[in-house]
């Protein structure tokens, strides 16, 4: 499996808004700058902790976006099934949805 940056960026833009991607990039740049500015000292642990918290928040946003997209698709399928059942039952006068009396 090869690493293709365009695929990674495309997948990120599916679930993250542009501002989240900008925050991700700025956080990464600041972490790298802090790494070189402070060196491998005790402060590196603090910088790594801040970076990991930012990454965790972004991963949670990605997961939330993916879940929302999946739920929308499931709701769309349910709505289509209910509409199909309603169309089928409207053709027969004595059949209706459960709990409804025929009109």
Describe this structure in words.
This protein is an all-alpha fold and 103 residues long. It has one domain (5-90). The protein contains 3 helices and no strands. The longest helix has 48 residues, at 43-90. The protein is rod-shaped. The mean pLDDT is 77.
Shape: rod-shaped
Strand residue content:
under 5%
The largest pleated sheet is described as:
none
Q: What is the terminal separation in angstroms?
A: 61 Å
Radius of gyration: 25 Å
Continuous helix count: 3
Mean pLDDT: 77
Helix content class:
over 70%
From the structure provided, what is the oligomeric state, counting identical versus distinct chains? single chain
**What is the chain-wise order of helices and strands?**
HHH
Low-confidence region ranges:
none
What structural category arises from helix and sheet content? Answer: mainly alpha
Structural domains: how many: 1
Number of strands: 0
Provide a concise account of the structure shown.
With 103 residues, the protein is mainly α. It has helices at residues 5-15, 18-38, 43-90. The termini are far apart.
Could you name the key traits of this structure?
103 residues, mainly alpha, 3 helices
Topology (elements, then pairings):
Blueprint: H1 5-15, H2 18-38, H3 43-90
Helix pairs in contact: 2-3
